[in-house]
Amino acid sequence: MIDSFSKLPGIGRKTGERLALHLLHASDKEAQTLSADILELKRNVKLCSICFALTDNTLCKICADPTRDPALVCVVEKPSDMAAIEKSLAFKGVYHVLGSTLSPMDGIGPDDIRVKELVKKARSGKIKEIIIATGTDVEGEATASYILDQLKPHNLCITRIASGIPMGGDLQYVDQLTMQKALEKRYGC
Amino acid sequence: MSGFSTEAILLKKLEYGDHDLILTFFTRSMGKITAIAKNAKKSVKRFSGSLDLFSVNHIQCTYPKKKKDALLVLSHADLESPFEKIRLDILNTSYACYWLEMVHSWLEEGKPQEPLYDLLLFALDALNSGSMPAPTISILFQIRFMSISGFSPSITECAHCHTGLDEIQGQKVVFDFTEGTLVCPNCNHHPVKKGVTVSKGTLKQLFWINTSDIHRADRIRFSAYAVREGEVLLESFIPFHIGRDLKSLQFLKRIRTP
Lengths: 189, 258
Description:
heterodimer; A: 189 residues; Helicase, Ruva Protein, domain 3; Dna Topoisomerase Vi A Subunit, Chain: A, domain 2; 2 domains; 4-stranded parallel β-sheet; 8 helices; 6 strands; globular; B: 258 residues; alpha+beta; CATH 2.40.50.140; de novo design (two linked rop proteins); 3-stranded antiparallel β-sheet; 8 strands; 35% helix; elongated
C-alpha cells in the first residue's frame, strides 16, 4: 500500500506511510468509498468527443450546454487551463484541449498533440474565431506559432490571449518581456 | 551561506514535484551546472519570466548545506535576454532547441567552455535578430561546435592519397563519418562503413564558414542545394559522434518537412 501511494505525484514514502496508517484507522465505509471512487474514476472518466476535456459522458458539460457559442473556440493545453479560464466567467465559447504542447527537447511533436483535430474543426466552416490560449513559455509560444501556421489557409479570425501585468502585481517584479507586451497592448486614450 | 553568481544560458528545464524546477545552465565561468529552483513555479519575485529555455540570465546559486553531492540551489535569476523572437516561430525554436540539446549532450558538468558559450550566444542572437537565415546559422553553429569540441572533420584533402580538395577530379567526394575524413573518387576502393556523398563546393563553403571571422559569416550565401547537403552531412555526423539520437533533431526534421 505504501509503495502504491509513493508512486503518486508529490507523495514520498513518509507521506505514503501516513496515508496508509490513516486508512488503517479509518472506518470500513471510508475505505470502501475511496476504493469505489478510484474504480469509478478509471471506468467512467473519458475524453469529450468534441473538445477532449475530461468527462463522464460522451460530451462534457460545456459542449452539451446550448447557451455556449460553438463558433468561438478556445485552444488550451490541458483541462486544468480550461478550468482556470472557466473560473474567470469571461468566456462563453467552447474549448479544444490539445493534450500537451510541442516540446522539441522532449520529442513531443505535432503528431502527439491534437492539432489535426483542430484543423478538421476549422475546415467544417462552423467556427468564426479561434483563441489560442497556450502558455507564454517557449513551448506554449512555439505551439501557438505552429497552430497559427496550420490554420492560416482556413481564413478564420485567429487570436492569441494577451499577456501583461497580473492583478495586484508589483511592477518591480515584472520581467522585461511581460512589461514590453503590456506596454504594446496598453489601452485607453 | 556560500555561493556564486554568473551569466548563464538555460539549457534544460525539468519539473520536479508540484512547485520546483531542476535546471541545467551553461555558464560562462563554470561550464554546465545543474541547480534546483525551489518554489519556482509559484514565485513571481525571484524568477519572474526568467526561467525559459535559451534565455540568458544572471543567476545566483548557493551550495547545498549538508550533502556535498546534492544539487546547487538557484536563489535568484535576473533575465538579461529572453531572445523573445525565437519562440514566436516554431522552426526557429526547433533550431535553438537542437543546439541546446547538442551542447547539453556533449558538455561535462563543471568544465568551462568559454568559446562554446560565445558561439551559442552568437547563434541565438543571430537567430533572434534574423540577421542570417536559420539554416545558415545552424550550419555555422554545428561546424564550429565540432571544431571547439575537438572532433572537427577533415574536409580539405582526401584522407588516403592526400590530394587537395581543389585538385580532386569530379564534383563529388565521399565523407566518411567514422573517420571524419574525405575519400576521393580515385580512392573509392577504401571501404567506407558509414558516409555520405557531398559536393566539393559545399565542403569549401563549410571550410570558409568554419575558419573566417564569425562576424563576417553573414556574408556567405549558401545555395538551397548546399544548405541541404550541409545539413545532411552535419546532422548525421554530430549525433554519430555524440553517440545518441537527439530528440530535438528528429523534431526539427519533422517541422522542416513541408
